[in-house]
Amino acid sequence: MTTPRTFAHVDTWVFDLDNTLYPHHVNLWQQVDVRITEFVSSWLQVTPAEARKLQKDYYLRFGTTMRGMMTLHGVSADDYLAYVHKIDHSPLEPNPALGEAIAKLSGRKLILTNGSVDHVDAVLARLGLATHFDGVFDIIAAQFEPKPAAQTYQKFLADHAVDPTRAAMFEDLARNLTVPHQLGMTTVLVVPDGTKEVVREDWELEGRDAAHVDHVTDDLTGFLAGLSPE
């Protein structure tokens, strides 16, 4: 067993958005999931059941359903994002404790997401975290190449002048931490609260014991608060 990387040297804190900065059991992403199925069904003129199978296949193979739809069916990213992110954000509630924990971290705080800036803005506004981040790298900045593609992380690091050996990455999907760990980042997998019901694919819940996962937490606020000296 290798010794997990620590945080003493970290000066850049990188966070995924969905199911990371808010808890999995809110199931906000479930709304997006339903709209993706609707989009795929309408675009390909297939039944919702057929669309659902294609959606999950593309998600697993391409990193996002959108990338699969763009690659295989010529879908416009703008049309796709506008449709699937038209959701009700009201289930999200302000989280001042998380904001305080993030504010106490020394260094820059960035968001790296397969979603869009518009979606990021809506989520952060509901959480009360909009002032706590120094930048966002979204799917458009990634030229529509989603995590876990290696070039996406490389572009993110270059665009924001991040030294990966001095950075930490927080994610809810273990496979999205593989490349960051290879690049030298300290990695944290944010998992669902075991007492709450969540809507997840089986493979999305895997990887807690993977060598590229340095730390695992089901309480991001508590974990971050524990990193800052009082």
From TrEMBL:
Protein's UniProt keywords contain Hydrolase: yes
Superkingdom in the source lineage: Bacteria
Secretion signal, residue range per the UniProt entry: none
Organism in which the protein naturally occurs: Bradyrhizobium shewense
Protein name: Putative hydrolase of the HAD superfamily
Entry's Gene Ontology molecular function annotations: hydrolase activity
InterPro entries recorded: HAD-like_sf, HAD-SF_hydro_IA, HAD_sf, Pyr-5-nucltdase
NCBIfam families on file: HAD-SF-IA-v3, Pyr-5-nucltdase
UniProt keywords, alphabetically: Hydrolase
Pfam families recorded: Hydrolase (PF00702)
